[in-house]
Amino acid sequence: MKLTIRDLSFYYGSHTILDNVSMEVPEGSLTAVTGPSGEGKSTLLSIVNRLWSADEGARAEGSAKARFAHGEVDLLSPGLNLPSLRRKAAMVFQAPTPLPFTIFKNASLPLSFAGIKNKDEVRRLVERALTRAGLWEEVKDRLHTPATHLSGGQQQRLALARALVTEPEILLLDEPTSALDPQSRDHIEAQLLALKGHCTILLVSHSEAQVARLADRVYRLTGGQLALCTESRATP
Fold first, then answer.
1. Which residues belong to the signal peptide in this entry (predicted)?
2. Which of 138, 152, 159 is nearest to 180 (CA)?
3. Quick one: how far is CA 131 from the chain centroid?
């Protein structure tokens, strides 16, 4: 398994968000978590790449481990190397979030943080990420124009490219199409299906129809409890 969570509980102060949940995410699969709003689906994603802090009153108990190419990582370890983890487990959020830079700089920024400075290598990785996000053909002749000039759907595919540019092993998606029109949603879904097998995808979505179209394995989170609902496609 790429990701294994066992008997995990998560708290903000005295408030229980996740209550003794367990899940397994097979390598190369697209696993979805669905359920009502406000039930902790985004919190579950935040545990995988540690977008939470004990300094803010958060507390996790149980076990959460990811198996990367270099070995197994304890996602709850206090000494976790967060920049390294977030290169391997990248996140795409709900709303398109272009930074106030060019399209190229938006896509390449994570490479700067990773210390990759060779211009040829940066360009190769940016082109690869934009291609995998289904955006390259639309922007290849205007890479140095502001990203804010893109449509909403293109901006979200740019966010997907930015997540993919460091070639993560796990891709975390938090309602990535909920703010998009149907055509833009379909573009994103097509790219996610193409990505299966290249990386492991964990998708949060409130759309039962979307989950049915995309997911190999579906969990439902309600009242802090997580249940495996179905394995709708053959997992790798």
1. none
2. 152
3. 18
Contact 139, 160 (CB under 8 A): no
Of the pLDDT bands very low, low, confident and very high (cuts 50, 70, 90), residue 162 is very high
* Number of Cβ atoms within 10 Å of the Cβ of 137: 9
**How many independent structural domains does the chain possess?**
1
The answer to whether residue 150 sits within a structural domain is yes
**Mean pLDDT calculated for residue range 68-74:** 95
Dist CA 208 CA 206 (whole Å) = 6
Choose among 93, 89, 90: nearest CA to 175: 93
What is the CB neighbour count within 10 angstroms for residue 126?
Answer: 22
pLDDT tens figures, 174-201: 999 998 999 999 999 999 999 998 999 9
Q: Terminal CA-to-CA distance of the chain, rounded, Å?
A: 11
Range of the domain at 182: 3-230
Give the pairing of strands 71-74 and 58-68.
Answer: antiparallel
What is the model's pTM? 0.93
Is residue 236 included in any domain, yes or no? no
Which pLDDT score is estimated for 236?
Answer: 45
How high is the pLDDT of residue 53? 81
Q: In this structure, how many other beta carbons lie within 10 angstroms of the beta carbon of residue 6? A: 13
